[in-house]
Amino acid sequence: MRTTLPGRPKPTLATVATQAGVSAPTVSKVVNGRDDVAPETRARILAALEQLGYQSPLQRRAATEGVTVVEVVMDVLDSAYTTQVLNGILQFAAVEDVDIMVSVTGRPEPGRRSPERRAQRMLDEGRAGMIVVTSAFSEAQLQAFQRRRIPVVVIDPLNPPSSDVVSVGATNWAGGKAATEHLLELGHRRIAYIGGIERAECNQARLHGYMAALTARGVPVDPQYIVSGGRFRRDSGVAGLKALLGLENRPTAIFAGSDSIALGVLGEAAHHGLRVPGDISLIGFDGTIQGEESVPALTSVAQPLEEMGRAALRSLLRQARGEVLDSHRVELATQVIVRESTAPPAG
Predict the structure, then answer these.
(1) pTM recorded for the entire structure
(2) Smallest Cα–Cα separation from 126: which of 41, 77, 60, 173?
(3) On the CB side of 165, how many CA atoms lie within 13 Å of its CA?
(4) Is there a contact between 73 and 130 (Cβ–Cβ < 8 Å)?
(5) How many C-beta atoms surround the C-beta of residue 96 within 10 A?
(6) Using omega within 30 degrees of 0 as the cis cutoff, is the peptide bond preceding 296 cis?
(7) Within the chain, which residue ranges are assigned CATH 1.10.260.40?
(8) Where are the beta strands (DSSP E) in the chain?
């Protein structure tokens, strides 16, 4: 609890240093996000800063401006997935009169701002919190924000975050099962799965849903039909189909772990003179506009991407207001959208 009262002098770095039992330069290092401070010392200084109500000049200026700003961090902005998630965030931000600042991580570069410095900068600039739609933030990086009590919401994380981090996703296992059941109901038995990032939680859930559907119908799970693409991108679909076409018993249907992977399969199938769905059926996962506009139109497991964005911002603003959330994990339902790329097997 902060002890600063109206009328009392604003706490200085020296005041915080005395409270924490360290030197003023050490406090300055923490305030400026420097990494060269021992974890125990950093925790003690952060506690003193909170207790005394210390605010840097940037924090005081941000507090007087009265504008709610939320940062959204993404890997890239060139995919239909991230675009639709961002649309949902922006729609809800307009309703709540919130400003959104978008940053793109891209590839890691030498000299990139450290997690401690980035977290402190967000605190100094008075941002309400951060929505993460990227694989680039590890648990250790998120802890830098948690130590400063900056609300963070992660959308579709690669791996399950700690129980105190709020995350938003879709019913990936149920979606994977439903996708495979759709192909089974059409009469397919040789069904392949081309996944994305192998270790990603969403990829594992979709794969296990696929396996569960096959097992429930008494169809053996053939390891040859499970291909890891390495990324949720078109090139994974291209490489995955090439691998599957080298098998003696080619699959008659493919479940792709994302629409982007499925579009890669679609393009590579045309390159080999294969008709979709005449020669091979194809179903994706995401329900993006790109899949809807492809030729043939892609059957897909639709995630409510815009609603995921809205749910993430809603949860973050509730945290920023000090509200207690009913659950730290939000999962929204998926739905199979049948279009033109799936049909019964030939013959």
Answers:
(1) 0.78
(2) 60
(3) 25
(4) yes
(5) 12
(6) yes
(7) 13-54
(8) 69-74, 99-104, 129-133, 152-155, 166-170, 191-195, 226-228, 253-256, 281-286, 299-302, 329-332, 335-337
At 5, the amino acid letter reads: L
Structure tokens, 141 = 């990086």
- What is the identity of the amino acid at 21? G
Residues 6+ apart with CB under 8 A from 215: 221
Under CATH, which architecture does the 172-303 domain have? 3-Layer(aba) Sandwich (3.40)
| Range(s) within the chain of domains with CATH label 3.40.50.2300 | 66-167+306-332, 172-303
Task: Give pLDDT tens digits for 66-98.
Answer: 668 899 988 777 788 889 999 999 999 999 889
Structure tokens at 17: 């240093």
Using pLDDT thresholds of 50, 70 and 90, give the confidence band for residue 119.
Answer: confident
SS3 content of the chain, % helix, strand, coil (to 5): 45, 15, 40
Q: Is the pLDDT of residue 24 over 60?
A: yes
Residue 279: count other Cβ atoms within 10 Å of its Cβ.
14
Of the candidates 13, 5, 7, 8, the residue with the CA atom closest to the CA atom of residue 54: 13
Q: Which of 220, 212, 225 is nearest to 180 (CA)?
A: 212
DSSP secondary structure letter of residue 164? T
When mean pLDDT is compared across 31-40, 198-207, 303-312, the lowest value belongs to: 31-40
Task: Name the CATH superfamily for 66-167+306-332.
Answer: Response regulator (3.40.50.2300)
CB-based contacts of 140, cutoff 8 Å, min separation 6? 115
In a 10 Å sphere around its CB, with 0-12 CB exposed, 13-18 middle and 19+ buried, how is residue 100 labelled? middle
* CA 214/CA 232 separation, integer angstroms: 23
Q: What is the CATH number that goes with domain 13-54?
A: 1.10.260.40
